[in-house]
């Protein structure tokens, strides 16, 4: 007779919670699920707070509505599973701008994460090299090649396109630089197209054609009431035992399963489980795997992360343009790398008192020293730079908040997906009841993290079923 399963999920971010929920939905009745979260708060980078009496996101603000392969994204599917579909709202203002040459210019249409699919439109911000459409007589990439985004685009479209278009777009998402980031990881659709297209222009257009979007179809969504409602609903629906302030310090094999060492060194708790999902960043994962799976640990432990700070200001009736926000190329010399006009972008956040919520993102990979400033200094610098970019003195904020995310955004160098695949192959062969999930392995964004957690849960179920437990 099979015994009842006991599964530990280490990490209470959205990937870990998605794993716990999928285990609850698919594992046999009576399966015990325990989620261990080192901090006191679930959700990872999903965190809804309050500013000036209203809700505001202090982390991720939205999710993609569509999956790159077609159909709804994993985030939307999760929202539906939790009965929250009626809360989905979309931006009411979608046009964003680039802060270049001391002013704001609309982001040109026809780009794919900043890479032009229409050279004439791109030229309003950045001039492509005269040989941008040259056909080299063979595909841009070989079947197994991975290169940096900047390396590919500079060679085909020139420096200005990278510096003024691609780099700020990638910087806004990853806080990294185009010259360092993996094409296959950050822009998988373009990487696939580049394995057959002879020109970068053709590859961009092929990638866009592979995922057509109906006119007026929303790209992004969020939840009225904040994304923390998604976190809370997932935690509740999973039926898992949630252990906050519970750091898992060690993982050892018991032969039949796993033993977790939890809590302080002086008074540790030992917990035996049948399977483990590690849904924490790559470095703590590598530390936990160091003794039980050293080869896998080495494969994922070298991933680096960027730190960022999000500064949100509540401004009384500021003169803001009808934009969702703007991105800033690193060449502009500003501390701000991106800004979102929350109460302009999201109609459900608009307030009758005219108070506007404006958020700025600070911190690029390799520039962590800038984040050592005090909160007051960061807020004052952001206010000053916003006024300069908008060319209008903004009113003094009536409230503000600085959210620091240390080591928040993975920096995927070329070859990242192959390294992760190799590590998972080793782990699966040696320890099928031990899996990894999250942004450190599969990419950033709520849908990717949700899918990563769900896939990890499915692997655990398959392994436990195969073991006859």
TrEMBL record:
Its EC number is 1.3.3.15. This is Coproporphyrinogen III oxidase. Residues 14-461 form the Amine oxidase domain. Belongs to the protoporphyrinogen/coproporphyrinogen oxidase family. Coproporphyrinogen III oxidase subfamily. Its cofactor is FAD. Its main location: cytoplasm. Involved in coproporphyrin-dependent heme b biosynthesis. Catalyzes the oxidation of coproporphyrinogen III to coproporphyrin III. One of its GO terms (biological process) is heme biosynthetic process. Pfam families: Amino_oxidase (PF01593). It comes from Micromonospora craterilacus. Pathway: Porphyrin-containing compound metabolism; protoheme biosynthesis. Coiled coil: none annotated. InterPro entries: Amino_oxidase, FAD/NAD-bd_sf, Protoporphyrinogen_oxidase, Zeta_carotene_desat/Oxidored. It is found in: Cytoplasm. Residues 126-145 are annotated as: Disordered. It comes from the Bacteria. One of its GO terms (molecular function) is oxygen-dependent protoporphyrinogen oxidase activity. Keywords: Cytoplasm, FAD, Flavoprotein, Heme biosynthesis, Oxidoreductase. It catalyses: coproporphyrinogen III + 3 O2 = coproporphyrin III + 3 H2O2. One of its GO terms (cellular component) is cytoplasm. Signal peptide: none annotated.
């Amino acid at each position: 007779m099979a015994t009842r399963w006991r599964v530990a999920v280490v990490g209470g971010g959205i990937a870990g919670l998605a794993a716990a929920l999928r285990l609850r939905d698919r594992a046999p009745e009576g399966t015990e699920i325990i989620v261990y979260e080192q901090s006191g708060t679930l959700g990872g980078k999903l965190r809804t707070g309050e500013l000036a009496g209203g809700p505001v996101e202090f982390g991720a603000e939205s999710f993609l509505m569509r999956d790159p392969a077609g159909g709804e994204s994993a985030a939307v599917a999760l929202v539906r599973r939790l009965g929250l579909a009626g809360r989905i709202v979309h931006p009411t203002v979608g046009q964003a701008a680039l802060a270049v040459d001391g002013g704001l210019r609309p982001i040109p249409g026809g780009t794919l994460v900043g890479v032009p699919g229409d050279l004439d439109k791109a030229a309003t911000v950045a001039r492509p090299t005269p040989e941008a459409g040259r056909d080299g007589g063979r595909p841009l990439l070989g079947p197994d090649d991975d290169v940096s985004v900047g390396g590919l685009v500079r060679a085909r479209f020139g420096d200005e396109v990278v510096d003024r278009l691609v780099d700020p777009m990638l910087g806004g998402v990853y806080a990294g630089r185009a010259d360092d980031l993996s094409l296959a990881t950050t822009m998988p659709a373009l990487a696939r197209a580049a394995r057959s297209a002879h020109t970068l222009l053709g590859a961009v257009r092929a990638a866009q054609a592979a995922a057509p979007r109906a006119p007026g179809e929303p790209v992004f969504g969020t939840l009225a009431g904040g994304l923390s409602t998604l976190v809370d609903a997932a935690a509740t629906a999973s039926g898992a035992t949630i252990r906050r302030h519970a750091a898992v310090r060690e993982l050892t094999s018991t032969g039949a399963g796993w033993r977790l060492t939890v809590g302080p060194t002086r008074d540790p708790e030992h917990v035996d489980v049948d399977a483990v999902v590690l849904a924490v960043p790559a470095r703590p994962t590598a530390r936990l795997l160091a003794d039980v799976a050293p080869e896998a640990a080495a494969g994922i432990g070298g991933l680096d992360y960027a730190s960022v700070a999000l500064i949100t200001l509540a401004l009384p009736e500021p003169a803001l343009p009808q934009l969702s926000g703007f991105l800033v190329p690193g060449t502009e010399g500003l501390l701000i790398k991106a800004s979102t006009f929350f109460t302009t972008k999201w109609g459900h956040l608009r307030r009758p008192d005219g108070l506007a919520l404006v958020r700025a993102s600070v911190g690029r990979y390799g520039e962590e020293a800038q984040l050592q400033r005090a909160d007051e200094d960061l807020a004052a610098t952001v206010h000053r730079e916003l006024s300069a970019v908008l060319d209008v003195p903004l009113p003094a904020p009536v409230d503000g908040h600085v959210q620091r995310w240390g080591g928040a955004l993975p920096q995927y160098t070329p070859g990242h997906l192959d390294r992760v695949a190799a590590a998972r192959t080793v782990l699966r062969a040696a320890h099928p009841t031990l899996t990894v999930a999250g942004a450190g392995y599969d990419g950033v964004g709520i849908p990717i993290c949700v899918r990563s957690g769900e896939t990890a849960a499915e692997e655990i179920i398959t392994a436990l079923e195969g073991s006859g437990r």
